[in-house]
Structures are given as C-alpha cells and as structure tokens.
Amino acid sequence: MHVIVIGCGRVGSSLAYQLYKEGNEVTVIDRSVTAFENLPADFEGRIVEGDALARDVLRRAEIENAEGLAAVTGSESINVVLAHVARSVFKLPNVVVRSFDPSWSRIHESFGVQAIGSARWDVQRMEEMLTQPSVRILFSRNNTSLAVYEFVVPKGWQDRNLQDALPESQYHVLWCSRAGLVIPLEDLQTLEQGDVIYLTANQEGIAKLRNRLSSNLEA
To answer: pTM of the full predicted structure?
Structure first.
C-alpha cells in the first residue's frame, strides 16, 4: 500500500516508520530538510522536501498512485486544506488528519476525512485507519483500549449466524444496519453481505477479526 505522510515531526515520523515496518510503501513530505532527521536510521521510504500545499510537491510524492494520506503537520488549517485536496482533487480513499481543536470536527466531517485528536489518539490507531479500512474505528475514549468499530459483512459471511460469527465472549455487538435501516439484534437471524455491524472490542479482539477478514476464514 502506498501511503503519504505529510509532516515529519514526532507524530509524523513515528507514523511513517510504523507504516514502513508493516511493509507499506511510504513517502514523507516536509518543508524542512532537518525534519527528516526524526526518522529512524533504518527507514527506507521516500522523502520529499517541499511545501505540500504546492501541487508539484504532491505530484513528486506520486499522490496519484497513493492509497492513503495522513496530514499531521503542526497546523490545523493546513491539515484541513491538505485533506480536502487529497479527497476532492486526487480522490484518495483513506485520508486522516491530525486535529488539535474539537471545534473543527464539523469541517472534517463535511470533507469526509477522519480526524485524530493528538491528545487522545495514538500512532497505532492512525496506522489502522489508513491500512485496514475493512474494520474502521469510530470512537475511542482517552486512556482506554476499548473502542467502537464498524465493518461491512463480506461475501464469505453470507447466511452466518451472528453469535457464531461474533461470539459474545470476544465482541459486544451494538447494532446492525442493512440497506440503511437499523435492524434490532433480536430480529437478526443471519448475516447478509453488505450488512454494517457496529461493535465494541479490545485491541486483541479487533486484531483477530481483521485477520479473519483478510484471510477470508470462515471460522
């Protein structure tokens, strides 16, 4: 997966390195050449020096071929603009921005990007949102490993029993949406492809679910 990280400070360099270690193709953009010194010595991704607000810089980073972008500069307004350009101009499917002020949440929502509050979220969660969109995190409370996730039921899970697919010992299903309508859990006998499941789970449970979905296992 080709991911662009804009901003090579503490968060950006950590995110870029984690993405690289996971086997992704990573390009880091920063206007300051000294910022790249934050990257570990064994980082072998690409670095692009320049202002990411300039389209030629984004094109040098091969944004047309990117599948995800994280705007994690120290400026809320710059992150918002970069996210908007990535989504509306270059049509990137996964865009994450670092946010400092909750009052910007409506703007992020209107642009269709996922905002990460720097005081409440960590690099691991950002990496998950960029590279593992099959199970998307919706909410996480500060200082807890418990979070709310959503995922779309794949074809291989068609007609499976809810409790067999998501046992209560590992997950707590909150609700299910089918064709835009909420289905009461007591009425949900079997799953259908395209159902959207909302659930809570800890990191270990979500890791197991992602492994099952990525490997297309039936059990």
So the answer is: 0.59
